[in-house]
Each structure stands twice: as C-alpha cells, then as structure tokens.
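job 3f2a | input accepted
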Amino acid sequence: MPLDYPHPEQIGQDRLALAFGILGVHGAPAVAIDLGTAVTFDVINRRGAYAGGIIAPGLAIMTRYLHEQTALLPELDPNDLLVSAGIGSSTIEAMKIGCATGFAGMIRAILDQLLVELRRRGEGEVKVVATGGSAGQLPRAWLGEIQFDPDLLLRGLEESWKRKQRQG
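job 3f2a | predicted structure (168 res):
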C-alpha cells in the first residue's frame, strides 16, 4: 500500500490493517473509524494510499477518567450508557447522557472536519466504515452514512496476507 505519510514508522500495525481492510473490501477514498480503547480515524485517499488520520480517546477511557479524576462520580460501564431521558434525574443518568452524547458528538465533529478536508482535497465521495467495540454506541440515525463492519481488522489482515502472497 502506498503511504502518503511523512513518518510511516509511526503508523500502528492495527491502523495499517484497517487501511488494508477498508481498501480491499470497501474501496477508496475512505475513512475507517475504529472505536476501541482509542478512537482512530484512518484515511485512504482516492489513489489507494494511506494518507493519515486522527486519534482521540475511546469511550472506556472517557468513562474511566470521569470516575478516576473526580471525588464522587462512580465508574460507569461503557457498554451500558443507553438512557431514554434527555436530562438526567440522577448522577448516573446524567453521566450516561453526558458520556454517550459527548462521545457521539466527538465522533461527528471529527468526521465532519475530515470530510470537509477531503472534499477540499478533491477526493470526491468518501466511504465511511466504523468498527470496534464501541461502534454500537453511535446513533442509529447515522446508519445510512456510516457502514458498520465488525470484522474490518480481520479483513485487513487477510487483504495484507493476500497482497504479500501475490508479491512472492
């Protein structure tokens, strides 16, 4: 895979595997969003080259940090943030709403910024694919815009292996 990145030694192997996966399965240009411990956004440009990305805190880090850095806030389970209320009527409910809404808002803001930049660069229509353990926390309304591929990393490892086999 070509790399349009000034310091390729700094790219994590997991991020390259995601790039191979999105390129091999979904095509280019594309953005892979991995919602794990960290949230990574990896960009594949229209030439099929890895072009960089963004790294942000993941949902588990957000919920754990709230607990660890405050005196009275309990630790939340990042997989149990769904609430029906828009305003919390307890500390836990308020924290759940804040974490879930803040997490989704962070993803939306970063993705919007990336898409604006990719349009500015003339990349055309960009595919967006999300994977990782916290992908289920994203709003269902985004389903038309973001594809979910829970096996993207595995697909990337397979694609990388196939390319290596073709090279001999």
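job 3f2a | The first strand starts at residue 30 and ends at 35.
job 3f2a | closed
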